[in-house]
Amino acid sequence: MALQVSGKLTSAAADQPSFTGCRIEVVFDREGAPAQSAASTTRSSRTGLLEGATLIPTDSDLGFVPDLGATATVAPTVTAAPIPFQVSALSDAAGNFTLAFPDPQEIVSVKMKIEARSPVGQVIGGSELATADLGDPITITVKEFGTVLGKPDEPTAQATRRIRGRVIERSGKQLPASLQVLLLGHEQDTEDGDSLNPILVAKADSSGYFSGAIRNVKFDRVVAVVAGIPGETPVRLVDSLS
Question: Which of 1, 28, 190, 193 is surrounded by the fewest CB atoms within 10 Å?
Answer without folding.
Answer: 1
